[in-house]
Specification:
Helix content is 29%, strand content 31%. 42% of the residues are buried. The strands form two sheets. It has a seven-stranded mixed β-sheet, sandwiched between helices. The chain has a two-stranded antiparallel ribbon with strand order 6-7. The protein has one domain: Vaccinia Virus protein VP39 (Rossmann fold, 3-Layer(aba) Sandwich), CATH 3.40.50. Helix 4 links the parallel strand 2 and strand 3. It is α/β, with parallel strands linked by helices and 203 residues long.
């Protein structure tokens, strides 16, 4: 919440990988887990009758509401305060889904796998989702195995705010997906991130 307004200003455009994933998809109800300022919610709003954005940060949810109002997709988008590991969404309710740049902020493997289970629970039988996490494949890192770290966010004026990350090794990312109820349609590494297109594999 302390960095929400500044963070939002640096997160203007949707990721190309998200745009590619959504290119041939449409739905009645779509979901953006870890929606932040709503940049990917906006992309989903072009392809769904209704889209729900969920985030733990009330500050970022305020930014998302303002973005939706300013850009004219507030009639399609709803924003909900919630935890990725306990989604406030009904079973089989959404698809497609986007869960990007969020999984790596959950503070334990148990919570991360539980959040993947939750994504599977809320996806409808025909729904797919795109999941991403920061990876050791990023040229910022020189490690082969996943690890926990903090990365400082620097606010105007110089104040730094530490942000927790779990940096995934690609094989570890695949292992957590396999541990969850999700079934993997495709898994790849792009731009220093692990990505997977997933569907619900059942409980």
């Amino acid at each position: 919440d302390r960095i929400a307004a500044h963070f939002s200003k640096t997160r203007e455009h949707p990721w190309p990988e998200v745009e590619s994933f959504l290119a041939d998809r449409s739905a009645t109800t779509a979901l953006d887990v870890g929606c932040g300022n709503g940049r990917h919610t906006e992309s989903l709003a072009d392809r769904a009758e209704c889209v729900v954005g969920v985030d733990l940060s009330r500050g970022l949810l305020r930014e998302a509401v303002e973005r939706a109002r300013d850009r004219g997709f507030d009639d399609v988008a709803s924003f909900v305060h919630g935890d990725a590991a306990a989604l406030p969404i009904a079973d089989d309710a959404v698809g497609p889904g986007v869960y990007v740049a969020t999984l790596h902020h959950l503070p334990s493997r148990e919570a991360r796998v539980r959040s993947l289970d939750e994504l599977g629970r809320v996806l409808d039988p025909d729904g797919t989702a795109l999941v991403s996490a920061w990876s050791t494949a990023h040229d910022r890192f020189d490690r082969d195995h996943g690890f926990d770290t903090t990365v400082d966010w620097t606010l105007p004026g110089g104040e730094t705010v530490p942000r927790y990350y779990h940096i995934y090794a690609p094989q570890e990312f695949d292992a957590d997906l396999a541990e969850s109820r999700l079934s993997v349609v495709e898994s790849t590494v792009s731009s220093g991130n692990c990505y997977a297109v997933v569907a619900d594999g059942g409980s």
